[in-house]
């Protein structure tokens, strides 16, 4: 089974010869993802390209990697609902319980490929979360962590933007920055379902708007949905 991760970005507007246009926001690439204690993954560090294809046998964590990224960039992280289920916590052995599991940690690294790649709007929207290294390359690092908290007798999820040394950025601990990041790097995720037609129906959550906008012959549309 092959699964692909293709996070799209808004292309920069080409500059006119005489009147340069302002660069548009959205040119952010996910460069790396680190995952610890998530489902069957004990520890994983994965470098990503502009398009990354995950290839492997069943039950080798391909879907888990995609789900981890989706969770970090989903609306659930900004809401009050439980972000992770008890089945998401890594069990070290058959007798282990989710409440005894080591904390889940998922870290996303968004990094410029070259100096000045990100438009000014990106740094303005994520001001306190943007870090700059010695080569003047900008990056944004988001870490999501979850563990069982005995004081509340429930699982607790926390998120932070990090500096280059991996320390939380206190000024960036604001919902607006998390919302802005999710707007800049939206995730469109089609799960590996046997009945993919359900995902492409006009009323589906993510793909519906795209399907409705396509000019397809009604007979052909019905045939595609039923196939």
Description of the molecule:
There is one protein chain. The chain is about 20% helix and about 25% strand. About 10% of the residues have low confidence. The chain has two domains: about 190 residues, Rossmann fold; about 30 residues, no CATH class. It is an alpha+beta fold. The chain is built from five helices and eight strands.
Salient structural properties:
single chain, 5 helices, globular, alpha+beta, Rossmann fold, 227 residues, 2 domains, 19% helix
Summarize the structure.
19% of the residues lie in helices and 24% in strands. By secondary structure, the chain is α+β, with helices and mostly antiparallel strands. The strands form 2 sheets. Strands 2, 3, 5, 6, 7 and 8 form a 6-stranded antiparallel beta sheet that branches.
CATH fold type of the largest domain:
Rossmann fold
Helix-strand sequence: EEEEHEHEEEHHH
The total strand number stands at: 8
CATH architectural grouping of the largest domain: 3-Layer(aba) Sandwich
Low-confidence stretches: 6-26
Q: Radius of gyration from the CA trace?
A: 20 Å
Specify the oligomeric state. Answer: single chain
- Count of distinct structural domains: 2
Largest sheet, in brief, is:
6 strands, antiparallel
Apparent shape: globular
Q: State the helix count.
A: 5
CATH first level of the largest domain: which class?
Answer: Alpha Beta
Strand content: 15-25%
The residue fraction in helices comes out at 10-25%
**Average pLDDT level:** 81
N-to-C terminal Cα separation, in Å? Answer: 20 Å
Structural class computed from helices and strand pairing: alpha+beta
